[in-house]
Amino acid sequence: MNWSVVFSPLLPWPWLIAAAAIAALLLLPGIVRRMRGAWLRLLAGVSLLLALSNPVLLNEQREPLSTIVAMVVDKSASQDLDGRDTMTASAADELTQRLSAFRNIEVRRIDAGTASGGQPVDGTELFAPLATALADVPPDRIGAVMMLTDGQVHDIPASAAGLPPNAPLHVLLSGHEGETDRRIVIDTAPRFGIVKQQQVIKFRVLDDGAPGGGPVQVSVNRDGNPLTVETVRPGVPTELTVDITHGGPNILEFEAEPLDGELTQVNNRAVVSIEGIRENLRVLLVSGEPHAGERTWRNLLKSDASVDLVHFTILRPPEKQDGTPINQLSLIAFPTRELFSQKIDQFDLIIFDRYQHRGVLPLLYFDNIARYVRKGGALLIAAGPDYASAGSIYETPLSPVLPVAPTGRIIEKPYHATVTPIGERHPVTRDLEGAQSDPPAWGRFFRLIDVDRPQGNVVMDGADDKPLLVLSREEEGRVALLLSDNTWLWARGYEGGGPHVDLLRRLAHWLMKEPDLEEEALRASARAGQLTIEQQTMADTSEPVTVRKPSGAVETVTLSAASPGLWRTTIAADEIGLYRLEQGDKRAFANVGAANPREYADVRSTGAKLEPLVDETHGTITRIADRSGNLTLPRIVPVRSSVSTGGSDWIGVRTTEASVLKGITRVPLFTSFIGVFGIAGLFGLIALIGLPFATWVREGR
User: Fold this and answer.
1) Confidence at residue 444, expressed as pLDDT on a 0 to 100 scale
2) For the CA atoms of 424, 427, 429, 430, what is the dihedral angle to 10 degrees?
3) Which residues have C-beta within 8 Å of that of residue 635, sequence separation ≥ 6?
4) How would DSSP label each residue in 150-180?
5) Contact call for residues 445 and 417 (beta carbons, < 8 A)
6) Per residue in 21-53, is it b (16+ CB within 10 Å) or e — as a string?
7) Which contacts qualify for 630-633: CB closer than 8 Å, 24 or more apart?
8) pLDDT digits over 105-162, tens only?
9) Cα 302 from Cα 286, distance rounded (Å)
10) 374 and which of 475, 504, 525, 546 could share a cystine (Cβ 3.0–4.6 Å)?
11) Which parts of 33-152 fold into alpha helices (H)?
12) Cα-to-chain-centroid distance, residue 449
């Protein structure tokens, strides 16, 4: 019961104050002159003013509110080490039971450090979930914050200003003192690198909590294949120079040998991803003679900003020598020796467009081109009637690397180019616009060079189901033959045109070994908490894929057919770090968040990071269990206004004085005539009537 007196005036307060002032002016002279009945007049006036001010007796019925104790349970990946998760779970249950024994203490448990909204968190976040969970609780109701963690927290605020006021922060540490662990730290690493150039990576091996040891072996892999083994000393920076071998991500893995007694080997590995950037691709285009389709190749290659094109057209074959002096010709001499002997290895692709052997290139240079292909070069033959003639390029030392032999016959009749069953699976011709209909929704060709003994992959057919586009591998290089010179009809829009830009660009980039156009490839990409695994294959089936998560856990997944030659599946990416995928001899990698997550940067149990905040809030830091794993939880003591909220064997919870209003009893003192308080109202009525009467009687004598 909480009784109090308040006023609910019947007239506005300014009027009552004015009435009191007037009454004082009228009554004070009589009191000063000691006139008969002056004091009775004063009492009557005071009674009247008191009645007009309407005093009310209030009684508030309040229910005390419980004290909230926020228990933050760390469930991050580092808690899985050394039995910390089991230790923490047991401590949380025991503390919940102890706190529930107090009548006015309510426990609010907050599991933190796990994936948020389907996205794995880079590092352990405890304070952000704490703020979210207590957003609906008044600050004065929070009696304490208890954090059950290994101390490796990555969202610690700079001060206690963002924490509940007057609530101590108690940290109960999992793990044990004196833990040791080995880890690799990448000090500097480039994000980008030019293909075929070198980059420098600086790294260190750290043995945390362990005395200085001897040399450590660090194995380095590039894209899943062994690269080198470095011998380093712990704590000493080491530099490694690596070649950027291809465009796209170049994944370098560093793995140090294990340390005896260390907590985990997960952070013995570090990953560097360097995005390989190609300098402009150098393409040599040799046109045998001017024709309608010559500019199709030139326009296509010139439109690509990443291509440096060198183009020569043979306008003066040997049989057209007319004795004109060289210094009077406006033509550029064909630098055959420079291109096909000295600088041939500098080109990424060589294209012969309707080229006929007429003695311009000595046979020795064709042999150079064949060696160039076998050593990893790319060759494209855009054939016309020249390929079926007596001067065919097939009749040179280049023939051993060409996948088809001409029969000498030229088929001249209208036909639609069609994608073969193999072509439907090949990345060069798969999903070409218009290929899905029968006949294909593109214009017809009218010429095809007949060939036999095709090798490699025939990805497009022409008239009479004869090969139109043949792709072949020759040792380390690649060769393609386009057996019609009618692609310019597509470029000109004849009968609606066709996908000449997509087809020819894909063809050129496949020849130059662009990773996205490989026939056999395993790829992985991470987005929005999902890991998408994709396999490109020419086979009819797909083998299972082994997925190694950043924590070392292994999972085997099966891919489903998405389209011809393409298999795909999606799994949850619930860990931060590098995922390694293996399928036979194929490897793929995908980063979720940072390649080297903060969660595993340092996994030793420590209270050093949280100590400043604990001291500022007058909290405590204690271990959950002893070396044997037995719980050693401190006593819980409710306190009120005491400054001390913890000691060596106890932790305090500040109890709240907050309450909720349940009801109000309101009793007017001058107007109530019912119940116990009606006596006050009766006396008030007597005073209002009796005092003026007594004044009249007194002054009437």
Assistant:
1) 94
2) 50
3) 649, 650, 651
4) -S--S---SSGGGSPTT--EEEEE-S-TT--
5) yes
6) eebeeebeeeeeeeeebbebbbbbbebbbbbbb
7) 631/87, 631/90, 631/91, 631/94, 633/91, 633/94, 633/95, 633/98, 633/172
8) 899 999 987 655 555 566 788 998 999 899 888 888 899 999 999 999 988 998 888 8
9) 14
10) 475
11) 38-53, 84-100, 127-133
12) 52
Helix axes 38-53, 13-32, angle to 10 degrees: 170
DSSP 517: G
Place of tokens 């080109």: 347
Instruction: Express each pLDDT in 451-486 by its tens digit.
Output: 988 888 999 999 999 999 999 999 999 999 999 999
In order of 222, 289, 463, 471, 530, the CA distances from 411 in angstroms are: 49, 21, 8, 21, 52
The set of long-range contacts for 316-322, using a CB threshold of 8 Å and a minimum separation of 24, is 317/358, 317/359, 317/360, 318/358, 318/359, 318/360, 319/358
Strand order in the sheet with 67-74: 105-112, 67-74, 142-149, 169-173, 621-623
- DSSP tag of 593: S
pLDDT at 325 > cutoff 60: no
Cis check: omega of the bond before 258, within 30 degrees of 0: no
pTM for the structure as a whole: 0.68
Treating both helix axes as pointing N-terminal to C-terminal, what angle do 678-699 and 38-53 enclose, rounded to 10 degrees?
150
In 3-state terms, the chain is what percent helix, strand and coil (to 5)? 25, 35, 40
